[in-house]
Amino acid sequence: MSTPMDAFDDHRPAVECLDLLTAPVADALRAWHGPVPVEQVLYVDTDPDKADTAVLVEHYGSWLVEQSANCVVVAGKRGGEVTLAACAVLSHTRVDVNGAVRRRLGARKASFAPMDTALGETGMEFGGVTPLGLPAGWPVLVDAAVADTPYVLIGSGRRRGKLILPGKALAALPGAELLEGLGV
C-alpha cells in the first residue's frame, strides 16, 4: 500500500519548515509533545491551485483520497452561546454536522462556521485549515477512521503545502476527541 509520502518528491520534517507555516501551526510544532515524535510530522510543498482535495488527488494520485483528511470549523449554537470546534474526517467522507457534531457540542443547531469566522479565529488560510495550532480550549473532533490511518495528508495552515503525519498524532492533539461516525 502506498503512503502519502510516495506522491511527493520532497517531504521533510515540518519543524525544518516553520517559516512556510502560519504562526499558530509553527507554534504548535514548537510545543509538540505526545506519542508521535515531532520529526514524524512532515511538510510537502504543493501548488496552492491544487489545495482542494478533488484537484489534489487528481494531480497527485487518486489513491490519496483514502489517506487525505479535511479539517473544517463548525459552530454549535444553544441559546445565545456559540461553540467553535474543528472536525477532521477522511476526505472521501463528509462531517456529520447535524448528528455527531450537534450531539457532541450539546447544541440545538450546528453548522459550518462562516469562512471569515473560521479563518479569523484560526489564523489559517482557506484551503489549509488544520487541527494543529487551533485556539486553546477548542474541541478537536477526530473521526476514528482518521486516527486509524497510518499516515494522513492534511492542511498545513496555508493553502500552499500539506502536512503528512500518523493519524494517531491527530488524536493526541490538545483538545482532541475521537468520535466514531463523525465522517459519514
Automatic annotation (TrEMBL):
<feature type="domain" description="YbaK/aminoacyl-tRNA synthetase-associated">
    <location>
        <begin position="51"/>
        <end position="171"/>
    </location>
</feature>
<dbReference type="Pfam" id="PF04073">
    <property type="entry name" value="tRNA_edit"/>
</dbReference>
<dbReference type="InterPro" id="IPR036754">
    <property type="entry name" value="YbaK/aa-tRNA-synt-asso_dom_sf"/>
</dbReference>
<dbReference type="InterPro" id="IPR007214">
    <property type="entry name" value="YbaK/aa-tRNA-synth-assoc-dom"/>
</dbReference>
<protein>
    <submittedName>
        <fullName>YbaK/EbsC family protein</fullName>
    </submittedName>
</protein>
